[in-house]
Amino acid sequence: MTLLLISPDYASHLLPLATIATAWRDRGHRVVVATGPATADIVAGFGFERVHLQLGRGSNPGVIRADEQPRDEADSLRGFFAATREGMVPTLAYQAKERLTDLMWDPVAAGRATLRIVADLRPEAILIDHLAFSARLALDAAGHDYADVVLGHPSALPVRDELYGFPPAWPDAFRPTGAELSALRELCERVSRNFTREWNRATAQLDAAATPTASAFATHGPRVFYNYPAQLRPEASVDGAVFLGSTRRVEPADAEVEAWLADAVPFVYVSFGSFLSVRADVLRRVADALRALGVRAAIASGSTPVAELGEIPGGWLVRPYLPQVRLLGAAAAAVTHGGNNSVTEALGACVPLLVLPFSTDQFAGAAAIEAARVGLSLDPNVADGSAIADAVASLLDGRAVDAATLEAIAADQRAAPGPERAYRSLTSARIAEASSDAVR
């Protein structure tokens, strides 16, 4: 059996998708990843094959730096980073305006390349990142069966009255005005119309007989997998979708990390992911808060130079990149920007979260975490060291945490890991389809 995995050339997208595919690899099936060159080492590390597919102008092998991107992408990234300093609504507005270039890049060429890969490989199953719009529209136009993997809060696939780019819920620390929300909604509606127009234009070039969609952001594959815990499930989700919980990968052994973990003193894990680690000012405030609390810390500094975090206590572990899943397996609490990998991997390890959201679906995710009482959220542009220290302290002593809910999420994922859920779902679907074909 051949499984085709389609992913943008970003580590944060490829890692969970590749982890899902290990359920096929470990059963002896062939796994081929269609992506760009920046993540080739990640593909090889999983033992998969790679075919070239460019789905965007930028890339991210693990830690992203604007000066390592093509000029247009570098300018876009710098604009995004600047917007995060202005606040929630300016950031969401900036991202909305960039949507056509960062989510649907050269759709006709990318779509044709996708269909050539499918024709060459003839895979029995296809897993694709939901945000790979240029590839998905081609699969839809050609009538291919595939599983659509939503790597984010479920509202990344809007249903019912949801609007892409407009969070359905806000964390308590954020209070946008009515005027701000009205302007943001109007912008997101306009972008959605333009995006749908571009989707339909590209689809028509691939198949003139294709039926236009009324909303490109709301389209999805025949099967939908949410990389998200069902216990944080919002009311609005696709009927019949499978909630994977998380995709907690097995990471290569790291001797320094294992030696550090041998000291059983509780610690707080900190990471702002591959993009938002550029916010050195916020990372410094987090480091200051943890120093003031006197707690041990493991900090993945990403694109922030370690020296900008201030004096590093002797018992801390600080590097640009750390094995996140391994460390979360032993952490007492975590501080994160609210990226999907950080959130799902922490909850899968029964680790409470302090979320400092900056962009996209991070706000909705932070609101869901607060509502379930498995963590707290603060505004990264407003919260000072004292507020961060107080929040972390309340996570460590359990005041802010519903321990039963947190344990239920972790136990559910231990009982049925995300990759196994995906494999069983697709395998059951294939058996059902084969039986139906035999009857016909």
From TrEMBL:
CDD domains tied to this protein: GT1_Gtf-like
Domain of life: Bacteria
Protein name: Glycosyltransferase
GO biological process, one term: antibiotic biosynthetic process
Entry's Gene Ontology molecular function annotations: UDP-glycosyltransferase activity
Pfam families: UDPGT
UniProt xrefs under InterPro entries: Glycosyltransferase_28 (IPR050426), UDP_glucos_trans (IPR002213)
SUPFAM superfamilies tied to this protein: UDP-Glycosyltransferase/glycogen phosphorylase
Gene3D superfamilies per UniProt: Glycogen Phosphorylase B
